[in-house]
Amino acid sequence: MNEAEHDITATTDITAGSMSVDNQQEDWSQLMNQIAVTLTAKEYVENYWKQKTRPDGRLFSQTRATTVVSVGDADADVGDNDDDLARRKNENSNPEVLGSALVTVGETRILSTVTFTVGQSTNKAGDVAVTLSFPCGQDSPKSAPIESYIQRLLLETIPLEQLSLQHYADDSTVNFKSSLSNNRQLSSKQQQRSAVVNLAFMAIRLQVSLQVVHNDGNLWDAAVLASVAALRRTILPALEWNSDSQTFCLLDKSDLVPKTQLQLPILPVSLTLGIYYQKEEDDADAAAAVKHNKLNWMTDPTRLEEESGWLTSCLTVVIDANSSSNDCNLVSLEYSGQQPLTVESDLLLALHMAAARAKEIKTLLLV
Question: How far is residue 11's CA from residue 146's CA, in Å, rounded to a whole number?
């Protein structure tokens, strides 16, 4: 084989190799997982932490890249192969979908939608419910605590009075003039009344549905952000009361129908920090390291770090992103762990990092 033929053959081999790599679509995350197979997750993560770095190259205090987009946006990236996401994006034209958002934190992706029902309320105010689901039932045991946490957070921060429909009790306030044949009849069984409904106690219940597209850790922060992002884009439904059928009708979306945006005076943004106690040579395990109190914060932990067994505790700090730059309005503080934290150093540092995160996320939510 002469030199020219050798060059051609070598070029062909390189091109074929490049095509093979492209076809495999082996990104950095997949490569790390393959390496982790030969080691336990515990050893793999610890080898990085000993060098004051993390498997994905971040610093201990560094969060992952985060994006927030409206699913209804033309440029929203739902992925070429994400048929379910594409279907849900098309569902955004459904008048019962009030708001939606797609949030990514690193490789964790959550799609959120806000829908509603109408029913009787005991306190003349509305309600908010949260559901979290995983593909094919994966990680479903994690749903309940996250759902409960976010629902409690939203109920404490959203003025529920704006969801009340008691103003319909005064017929003079119902000034929508449209043909019932062009309206969408709400079909919930709770809205079918054989007797006259007490309109003074009617209210809207917002349903926040969170669909985990991919879980790469720190679902708490991603789920909170997805909920807030969708609610911030929520337009309350324009309804008309039909006294004959004793039901509410949803008016068609048009420029003639008044639009009222859901008000969020408090914009909760969470930051989760895993707590890692650095192990010395004479420490047999994480419990022994805790006794030495060699604490390190692991901001925004990945799934690999969560499952390594070294994060003995977890702290989630929720800050109001609407608070002024000089203030740090603490909304919620959740801590799971047996080792006490000091206010002077540990908690103040956590609050400082959470305030910086809230400022960063606010710029994404206001776009």
Answer: 53
Q: Among the ranges 27-36, 76-85, 252-261, 263-272, which has the highest mean pLDDT value?
A: 263-272
The one-letter amino acid code at 111 reads L
- The pLDDT > 90 percentage for the chain reads 37
SS (H, E, C) the chain: CCHHHHHHHHHHHHHHHHHHHHHHCCCHHHHHHHHHHHCCHHHHHHHHHCCCCCCCCCCCCCCCCEEEECCCCCCCCCCCCCHHHHHHHHHHHCCCCCEEEEEEECCEEEEEEEEEEEEECCCCCCEEEEEEECHHHCCHHHHHHHHHHHHHHHHHHCCHHHHECHHHHCHHHCCCCCCHHHCEECCCHHHCCCCCCCHHHEEEEEEEEEEEEECCCCHHHHHHHHHHHHHHCCEECCEEEECCCCEEEECCCCCCCCCEECCCCCCEEEEEEEEEECCCCCCCCHHHHHHHCCEEEEECCCHHHHCCCCEEEEEEEEEECCCCCCCCCEEEEEEECCCCCCHHHHHHHHHHHHHHHHHHHHHHHCC
Number of residues assigned to the chain: 367
* Identity at 210, one-letter amino acid code: L
The answer to whether 105 and 66 have CB atoms below 8 angstroms apart is yes
Tens digits of residue pLDDT in 333-363: 999 887 778 777 788 889 999 999 999 999 9
Q: Is the pLDDT reported for residue 101 higher than 80? A: yes
Phi, psi angle pair for 4, to nearest 5°: -65, -45
pTM for this model (two decimals): 0.76
Among the residue ranges 149-153, 236-240, 282-286, 360-364, the one predicted with the least confidence is 282-286
Tell me the pLDDT tens digit for each residue of 214-240: 999 999 999 999 999 999 999 888 887
What integer pLDDT is reported at residue 109 of this predicted model?
A: 96
Neighbouring residues of 307: CB distance < 8 A, sequence distance ≥ 6: 41
